[in-house]
Amino acid sequence: MPARLLMIDDDTRLAAMVSDYLRAAGFEVETAASLAAGRDRLYASGPHALPCAYDALVLDLMLPDGDGLDLCRELRADARTRALPLLMLTARGEPMDRIVGLELGADDYLPKPFEPRELLARIKALLRRTAPAPNSADEVLRFGRLEVDLGARVARVDGKPCDLTSHQFELLVVLAQSPGRVLSRDQIMDALKGHPMEAFDRSIDVHISRIRALIEDDPKEPRRVLTVRGAGYVFAKKQDAD
Fold it and tell me: What's the Rg (C-alpha) of the chain?
């Protein structure tokens, strides 16, 4: 069954061109030109009602009736849409815009103008990361109060689910599957199946910060996901609370 995508962008000409390209690549694509129309589609009732109405969302940052960041925040606060893969588009190229989007829960970020081929590659990478891993349905990684459930694609602390995005969950899995081993940013990107992030990009650091905020007792003094200056990150095998 083809993956279903929703693209929310008020540039109808661009949306039509991109939709045609993605449909030719085998996707089902629906479009909306405003936040209101996008919300209507996301929260529609019927046979495709949430949480499985769409497999991924492409969201423009600047829309005629509001900011795409507001919708991103809403989606990550709603249990039905928390894990929906989300790629954010924007004509604003400021690094802070990208950082804010990632902090709010976007999985990826693509500045305009862009090549449809690059958008397609990024969407495929998002979908690969959210696909269930083979033979992982019953596998749960346990580290004291923290458990990483590979089959359910959820991390829990003291049995309570953490509000991680799909990308943040995959990043946590990469670290948790190599406890005690220092992983460089390049190694992390390779493990994330070719996700297009440059080594000097702060996006990995932003996602690590979000993970720490959810799994650490004190994110400012982390004891589980540690920074090794000049080398990368390491997932501690044990901590005092284990």
Answer: 18
Rounded to 5°, angle at Cα 44 from 37 and 90: 40
> To the nearest 5 percent, what fractions of the chain are helix, strand and coil?
35, 20, 45
Q: How many residues does the chain have?
A: 242
Question: How many angstroms separate the CA atoms of 201 and 231, rounded?
Answer: 15
Q: With the C-alpha atoms ordered 176, 182, 183, 185, is the resulting torsion angle positive or negative?
A: positive
C-beta of residue 37 within 8 angstroms of C-beta of residue 49: no
The two structure tokens encoding residue 94: 């400021």
Contacts of 154 (CB under 8 A, 6+ apart): 161, 162, 164, 169
Q: Which residues contact 124 (CB under 8 A, 6 or more apart)?
A: none
137 has pLDDT over 60: no
Task: Measure Cα distances from 179 to 47, 63, 176, 226 in Å.
Answer: 42, 43, 5, 11
Q: Which of 44-58, 118-132, 162-176, 205-219 has the lowest mean pLDDT?
A: 44-58
